[in-house]
Amino acid sequence: MMSEFGVTGTPPARLSVGLVSAGRVGTAIGAALELRGHVVSAVVARSERSRDLAARRLPEARIADPVAVAAASELLILAVPDSALPGVVAELAAADAFRPGHIVVHVAGAVGAEVLTPAADAGAVVVAAHPAMTFTGGESDIDRMEGCSWALTSPDEVGLVVGQMLVMETGGLPVTVAESHRALYHAALAHGANHLVTLVNDAAEALAASFAVLPGGGVEGDPDGMLGSDAEALARRTLGPLLRAALDNVLASGDAALTGPVMRGDAVTVSRHLDALEDVDAGIAAGYRALALRTADRCGAGRDVTDLLAPDLSEQLR
């Protein structure tokens, strides 16, 4: 059955799937595959949170150790952190857990397929397949996999074909990334997604500080309490439409979507921003300065803005 999958590109009706381990990513992938008729037969779930996720998302799967999970699976998914992956592969290889006909997939982002060489040497089809999606453990994780891009890396064409078919089985879109570019690929995703979370939280904190909350719990200028009394919740509600519009615009138009004082060369306003943010949190101000300087670089802002944002650098360039 495995050879037919790899050579013809025709997926078998059902695969027995094993997960190492049952975290947020692994259980979401397992649940997505089960929706297509595959069966997650065994999982590694060492923490209480993993056991809870496995019970909720994959209630028919039994909990076992990694070697037993590998033995029970036709498709073995290694869903462990990048740093833990070499050790897990070495542990399974030492136990002769890989075999001919096995499909062995890892879903780490910054690591390619080379780490799976012991499995390939044992005759397994190997592929690194990373979903470009954030997983929180919530119910929306599985729905978000529909249309999600996956980065595939494999040492051979058979592995890429198998990876493509598996990704399409989850409703995803396969994209090939070279072994040498996996770190760059993952850095780009982390820079966009992880740092976006930090940016939004900083913006929400600063915006909440700008709202005047009355002693009685209401917001000044809102005597009827329509906006609520929680300044942070109000800040997030205020930011929501703006940030969604900005994200839609930049994805559609790139740098042409840029607005604001840096783009306009308004050094006076940028200076006021920095002073106000320093009063709230020096870390937020530092983040603003760094991103504003990068923005100035992208849009070709004038020297009055760049001198304000990076006076030391400007002095060196003179």
Key terms:
318 residues; disordered N terminus; alpha/beta; disordered C terminus; 15 helices
Which word captures the global form?
elongated
Percentage beta strand: 5-15%
Strand order of the largest sheet: 3-2-1-4-5-6-7-8
What is the number of helices?
A: 15
Q: Spans of 5+ residues with little confidence (pLDDT < 50)?
A: 1-9, 314-318
- The helix-strand sequence is HEHEHEHEHEHEHEHEHHHHHHH
Based on DSSP secondary structure assignment, what is the total number of beta strands?
8
Calculate the mean pLDDT score and round it.
90
**Helix content class:** 40-55%
Category by helix and strand content: alpha/beta
Radius of gyration: 25 Å
In short:
With 318 residues, the protein is an alpha/beta fold.
Structural description of this entry:
It contains 15 helices and 8 strands. It is of the alpha/beta class. Helix content is 54%, strand content 12%. Helix 9 crosses helix 10 and helix 14 crosses helix 15.
Please give the structural blueprint:
Blueprint: H1 2-8, E1 16-20, H2 24-35, E2 39-44, H3 48-57, E3 62-63, H4 66-72, E4 75-78, H5 85-94, E5 103-106, H6 117-121, E6 125-131, H7 140-144, E7 149-153, H8 157-169, E8 173-176, H9 182-210, H10 231-253, H11 261-264, H12 267-280, H13 282-299, H14 303-309, H15 311-317
Parallel strand pairs: 1-2, 1-4, 2-3, 4-5, 5-6, 7-8
Antiparallel strand pairs: 6-7
Helix pairs in contact: 2-3, 9-10, 12-13, 14-15
